[in-house]
Every structure is written in structure tokens, then in C-alpha cells.
Amino acid sequence: MRIEMKNIHKSFGANKVLDGVYFTLEPGEVHALMGENGAGKSTLMNILTGLHKKDNGKIVIDGKETDFQSPKEAEDAGIMFIHQELNIWPEMTVLENLFIGKEATNKLGILNTKKMKALAKDVFKRLGMTLPLEQEAGLCSVGEQQMIEIAKALMTDAKVIIMDEPTSALTDREIQRLFQLMESLKKDGVSIVYISHRMEEIFTICDRITIMRDGKTVHTSPIKETNFDEVVKKMVGRELKDRFPERRPKPGKIVFEVKNLTRKGYFENIHFSLRSGEILGISGLMGAGRTEIMRSLFGIDPLDEGEIFIDGQKVTIKNPYDAVRKHMAFATENRKEEGLILDFSIRENISLPNLFSLAPKGIVQSEEEEKFVDMMSKRLKIKTSSIEEAAGNLSGGNQQKVVIAKWIGIGPKVLILDEPTRGIDVGAKREIYQLMNELTDRGMGIIMISSELPEILGMSDRILVIHEGKIAGELQGKEADQETIMTLATGGKLHEHTNN
Amino acid sequence: MNTQTTKRPLSQVFSKLGPLIALVLLFVVVAILNPSFLAPLNILNLLRQVSINALIAFGMTFVILTGGIDLSVGSMLALSSALMAGMIVSGMDPILAIIVSVLLGTLMGMFNGLLITKGKMAPFIATLATMTIYRGLTLVYTDGNPITGLGNHYTFQLFGQGYFLGIPVPAITMIITFAILWFVLHKTSFGRKTYAIGGNEKAAIISGIQVNRVKWMIYGLAGTMSALAGAILTSRLNSAEPTAGTAYEMDAIAAVVLGGTSLSGGRGRIFGTLIGALIIGTLNNGLNLLGVSSFYQQVVKGVVILIAVLIDRRKA
Fold first, then answer.
1. A348 vs B7: CB contact, 8 Å cut-off?
2. Distance CA A208, CA A31 (A)
3. Among the partner residues A15, A337, A356, nearest to B4 by beta-carbon distance
């Protein structure tokens, strides 16, 4: 299937989102669609698949002008969109999820489970997946849920598959498997639109690239004719010398320490310490227990054993209220579910953990609140017309800044950042890295969980690798490399230096 | 950009005023059909009729904003009223009896809150159970008979029957309570936390809000409001009925919903609830004036709620 989108325009209210976009997709190619958040990538794809209506422009599919009225029509025509947000029914089984809305039935409407199981097994085999079909989907890891979504798309005999950040939650092995599959789909003439912020992947898997900025197409070419620096430059419209700002850590005394943390079935015997002004990177595979450790020490989930020390003092943390009172802060990995109240304005979100100081006698001091939020919003360069804007209307990068802003306000000694740059664009990522530098310069200790190895290597002063709920190793930031971390994360042993 | 910034507040203003516009329309229609509706005496009467449902609905607003529900409000009203009447009959000072009964109502509500927070029960189930328990306790205490013989205490009767500056005292109680709760909801951190819990409970917990404590207090408030409404009702009737307040939870929930508060929590205003209670009161009062049979009145009320919710859906 050959798709041409010509001179596409789209506005939401007075907000111009697409301003004359051109995009072509050839049969059997993997086409990278790049751009910062808010550049209009998702809107363009939503117009193609009939979720949004274009204001102006032409869509030509296989030589015929086409305008899908709904995602259903696009699906029937063979265009599948795998969205970034997962559509998983957690209480239903993997099998039920795979066939939701497309169940195989006999004439009376009774489910043909045998047939569905056979189809599911077939697609799982192609994906190299070994997930039990009768398991509740909610018990699957985020990566597995992502794979379920991909499997769903594959079962439809799609001619065009649009993937929006498909690998953000996948392990390296799953990514490799997905790439192999994409290669074989290509051979069958299936075309893939690949939206990702991960530069390495784009150069590994894609044939051509289209870059969008501010609602316009700024670049289209075969991937071989461009390079990393040019892509970044065209995406942000300015020079980005380096992805990571230089770190000049000045670690101080130990501000935070945990000993023998254990939660049965999740992690055991975890010790580590954190100095002021230090970034401690936590690496490991999806499901290794990184997030679970942080959730337990912050009092969100229970802890079976272990001691926590802040500034050398033993503390008891039974719930997040205790943690916040002890000047701990936790920006969780899923900002929409746990970080923000989407209906709340930027102002209300930022002041939420700061109410004890903004409302000392229970009455919110509006003037102080406004000043405080204004200051925070300027300091973090949150892009918005007003601090009264609802958090739900912001782009991913700005939402993340709001989450960090609300925590900086409490003056934390320890700031835990779980996947701080997941799903946000290059420009905003760098801003967040700079902010991390600024915060550690002021003596804050940061614990950063990240699945992106370049981020771990680029920002951490010290790295803790977790494997199956245990500490597999600790590395100094400078001596670490991708290979060492992956060896530890997959349960391998490092060769002793003396042996080498 | 300019059109956007001017347009959005306008539509927001409209959605905020939606319930108010509905109330005004209703007023006009009823007044045209029967001009005596607008007689000052009738309007004052309307305010007094509304006050009991409004007070319960104020408490219900907080509960619903957190994403919860309280089905036991009518039973808490009955039990606290019966206990109050019992205390008065046994010789307690009626004003003190009011205070004690309102505190007892708070405790009943807090018990609901305890079941919901510490007991981790769904609010619907927990308050469905206590609705039956509190009603049962009322029947046990009263032996199924009204408690009368509350005497002729002037201040006590003033509470439900009297006038101050020509305005019925229950209406004044309603307005003062509204003003206090409006302030709490919109100007205090407690109010902010109420919205936060309904907006995203997980995010609220992680932000260090003591969600259980806030909820517990909110269910306590619902009990307080029910008992206060009960005191007004008892003073007005000069007796406590064991079946008082039956199905009051429905009128309270209706007032909250008519006022534009979302049953899933996080969105809504207490001003809307006041208007919602007035809409229900106007319907009751107007339909009576127009001589509509009480059977049809129920049908009309239900239809009005459906229309209001349908309009609200379309806006969203």
C-alpha cells in the first residue's frame, strides 16, 4: 500500500497543529517519523487513521483519494495504529485481550476458543513470545502488555502498521525480536511508520526518515543520507552539542542509606547509600525490581524488613506522607497515573505536596501560592500560556516538568526519579538533565531509575545494577559501559580484573 | 490566540452557570403557570423546605467529590433525631441535645469513614450496610413509635419553625452552613485535598496526602450534616419519627448531580449543589401549587434529573 499525505492542515481551536505537512509511505519500508513532542506526529497519524478530521489537504492511498471517517474504517482498509498508551483490560486474560472486539464465534455468537487459541499461538510464535494465554493481562509486565498490543496488530493482516514508541517498555531481547519481525514484515510488503525518540533504533531499523517540527515537514530522506547530529538539529531547530550536559559532581556526606531492604517475592537484601550532590543510577531489566524497591522505601508498598537512614538518623516510613515529611520525593514512572491530577491546573498540581507550607493554618494563601508556582514554572521552563492550564492538556515533557516542580518545592534531600525522560523529546530531555545537574549542585541527592542505558551512563555518578530483586553489582559512573551493565543485568558475572 | 483565550472562559462560565440557568427557567415556567408561586411567603416557604435536603446534599458533595457515596444519610438523620428527642424527653436542655445529637451524627459518619478507609470497603457497600444498621437501631430505640412530648421550648422550636428578620431560621442555617463549607472547599488545603483524592487518588497518596484521614473526616462531615438536618426536622415536627429521612439519600444525590458534580469524583462545586437542591425544591413546591398528583410528581422529578444529566453529558 502506498500512502501520500499532501499539504495537510489541522487546527484545534486557534491552535495550529499541522501547517502543510507532506508525508509518503512506500510499500515495504520502515519509515521513521521524528519530531519533538507537540511537533504534530501523533495528530498526523490520527488524521490518517480517521480519528481526527483534517481541515485541508489530500490523502491518496494507492492512487485513490481517501478520507477515513473512523479508525474502524482505516483498520478495515488494513491500517493499524499501535498507540503509545496501552489498551489493556487488566482483569481479562491475555487471550481475551488479543481478540477483544474481534472474537471468533460460531453462528450463534458462541466463542470459538479453540480457533482463537490456535491463532494466538501462531502469532506468539512469530513474535517469540511465551506468555500463557490464560493469564490475567494485568499480571503481565508493561513490556509484555506492549507485546500483546503488537500481537493484536499482527493478527489483522495489516498492510500498514503505525507504531508509536513501541519499545519504550520493552527489554533489549524483546526489542531484538520485534526488529526481526519488522524485517520479515517488510519482506511481505508491509510498511511500518515508526515513531520513536530512541535515536539508536531509528538508525538500526528504518529505511527512510521524515522529521517534523512545529507542524511542518522539515526533512525527508533515506536514513543513510543523514546522521544523528543532523536529525537532532532538525528536530529542535537548533544545535544540540551533546545529549548529556557535562557532570561535575561534588559528592558530600551520606544523606540517605538503606540496609537489608526486603519485600518477599519482589526484592531482598538491598543496601545502598546516596551522598548529597550525587546521582545514583539504578539499572536493570524490566521487572528486575528497581521500581518496587523505590515504592517500598517511599511507603507506597509494604516492606518486610530493612532499615532506612536519613542524615544518619534511622527513620520509619509507613506511607508516602511520612516520606514527604522526611524530605523525600518520588517522581514515579507513569506521570499520568500517579504523578499528576490531570484535571488540576499546573498551579494546583505543583502546590499539592507543598500545602503544608502554602496553607500553614489550613487556609491556602493564594498570593503566596501563585508566586511560588510562578517561580517554579519559570525555573523549570514549563511552556504554557497560564499556570491555570489543566495538566492534562500539556505535552509529555511539560507534564514531567510539572511533576518535578512539585517535588522540588518541598526541598527534598533525596529525589527519586523513575524513568525521568520516558516518552519525552530530545529538547525537553536535555532540559531535565540540566535541571538534575543544577539540583545536585545545590546538594540534593538524586536516585535515577532508567531503562535507557545511554541515560544511565551519561548522567550517573554511581550505578547500581539490579537483577531479579538483588543487587548484581555497583559500578563507578566513569568505569561503566553498556556491556558491563548488560552482563550484570542479565545475571552474568564480571571477569575479575586480575584474570584479564 | 486571542479568540482562544476569550472563548474558553466563556464556555466555562456557561457550564458553571448551567444549573443556575435551569433554575431560573424553572422559576419562570412555574410562575407563568401559577403566579402565586412568586408570592414572598411561598418563596420563604420554599427556602425552608429546601434547607433539609440542601444541608444533607452539602455533606454529600464532599463525599461524591472524593469519588465516594453515602447511602446512610437518611438513617443517620433518623437515629440522631431519635436520640436527640430521647435526651430532651429525659430532661436534657434542648439546645445541648441538639449539639450532642450533631456530634453523634459526626461519630456515625466517622464510623462509615472507618469502614471505608481502614476496612477498605467500597463506600456503596459500607454505607448500604450502615443505612440498614442505623435505621434498625432507630427502630429498636423508638420501638417503632414517634417520640413526642418534646415540650414547648421556645429556642428549640425556633430552630425549625422560627423566623429571623422575616427569614425562616432553617434557611439561615442553610446559608451560613453553605458559606462555611464553600470556604472550606475552595479556600483551604482540606478542600484542595478533597478534589485531589477524587481527581487521582494514587497521585494524591504519593504526594503525601493522608488520604484516609481526609476521607474519614469527610464521611464524618456527611454525618454532621445529616444530624443537623435531623435537628431541624425534629424541631419543625416537634417529634422524632422512626421512619424520618427515608430515601433522603436519593434527593441529596440528585441535588449534587443536578448541580453538575461528577459521580466519579474530582469535578464539581458546592454552589451547584445549592442550586440543585433549589431545583428539586422548586419542582416539589411548584408541582404542588399546580395541583399535580404526588404520583406524577415523582415521574416529573426523575425526568428532570435525566434531562439535566443528558445536557451535562453533551457538554463533556
1. no
2. 5
3. A15
**How far apart are the two ends of chain B, measured CA to CA in Å?**
23
Confidence (pTM): 0.79
- pLDDT tens digits along B121-149: 999 999 999 999 999 999 999 999 999 98
CA A292 to chain B, closest CA, distance in angstroms equals 14
Pick the CATH number of B38-315 from 1.20.1070, 1.10.3470, 3.40.50, 1.10.10: 1.10.3470
In chain A, the residue whose alpha carbon lies closest to the alpha carbon of B6 is A14
Q: Three-state SS for A473?
A: strand
Could B207 and A332 be called an inter-chain contact, meaning their C-beta atoms sit closer than 8 Å? Answer: no
Chain A residues lying within 8 Å of B192, measured CB to CB:
348, 351-352, 355, 359, 364
Searching chain B, which residue's CA lies closest to the CA of residue A391?
Answer: B199
Confidence check: pLDDT of A168 > 80: no
- Beta-strand (E) ranges in B156-250? 163-164, 167-168
Tell me which residue has cell 404542588: B288
Q: What ipTM, to 2 d.p.?
A: 0.85
Burial of B50 (0-12, 13-18, 19+ CB in 10 A): buried
Identity of the residue numbered B312:
D
For chain A, percent of residues with pLDDT exceeding 70: 97
CA of residue A180 relative to chain centroid, distance:
22
Neighbours of A357 (CB within 10 A): 15
Q: Is the CB of residue A318 less than 8 Å away from at least one CB of chain B?
A: no
Cell of B135: 435505621
**CATH 3.40.50.300 residue ranges in chain A?**
3-88+140-236, 254-499
Give tens-digit pLDDT for A402-461: 999 999 999 999 999 999 988 777 778 888 999 999 999 999 999 999 987 888 988 999
Q: Which fold has domain A3-88+140-236?
A: Rossmann fold (3.40.50)
A243 pLDDT exceeds 60? yes
- A254-499 folds as Rossmann fold (3.40.50)
Residues facing A212 on adjacent strands: A217
pLDDT band at residue A13 under the 50/70/90 scheme: low
C-alpha to C-alpha distances, A263 to A260, A295, A305, nearest whole angstrom: 10, 11, 7
